[in-house]
Amino acid sequence: MVGHHYLIDVAGCDASTLNDEEYLKKLLEAGAIFSGATVLKTESHKFSPQGVTAFCLLSESHISIHTWPEDGRAAIDMFTCGDCDSKAGVLLVAEGLGGVIIANTLAYRCQGMIIPDHYEP
Predict the structure, then answer these.
(1) What is the per-residue pLDDT for 42?
(2) pLDDT reading at 15 higher than 70
(3) What are the catalytic residues?
(4) pLDDT confidence of 2, banded at 50, 70, 90?
(5) 80 falls in which pLDDT band (50, 70, 90)?
(6) Can you state the angle between helices 21-35 and 86-97, rounded to 10 degrees?
(7) Are 53 and 86 in contact (CB under 8 A)?
(8) Does the pLDDT at position 112 exceed 70?
(9) pLDDT score, position 1
(10) In angstroms, rounded to a whole number, what is the distance separating the alpha carbons of residues 113 and 90?
């Protein structure tokens, strides 16, 4: 099964939005649900004096955000497997930040990967 990993960098966001831990957690959950994923657990950490990292553990993998309110920037990523639309999820989160997307990347992970019956690193 191939995993889809979508990464977006957003700039020009309002500092208070990027520092609102509860809003960011709800926004991530909304992005996950919008993509078709199932949220298992959401965790976050608010840094002092500013900035938030939030993470949703999904049945299909994860969606996360890291913010730099002092610069008006955020990094959002979503890694999913199955039929989820990770691009739709991160775009919804980016829209909820009100900034401008300055970079986006779609990566495919685990393509053609063969896992042996017994693996020793």
Answers:
(1) 98
(2) yes
(3) 61, 66, 81
(4) low
(5) confident
(6) 150
(7) no
(8) no
(9) 45
(10) 26
Length of the chain: 121
Tokens of 58: 């999904």
Residue 52 · residue 46 · CB < 8 Å: yes
How does DSSP assign the chain, residue by residue? --EEEEEEEEES--HHHHT-HHHHHHHHHHHHHHHT--EEEEEEEE-SSS-EEEEEEETTEEEEEEEEGGGTEEEEEEEE-TT--HHHHHHHHHHHHTSEEEEEEEEEESTT----SS---
CA of 79: how far to CAs of 7, 12, 74, 111, in Å?
A: 9, 24, 17, 14
For the entire predicted model, the pTM comes to 0.85
Q: Which two tokens stand for residue 26?
A: 């709800």
Q: Are 8 and 91 in contact (CB under 8 A)?
A: yes
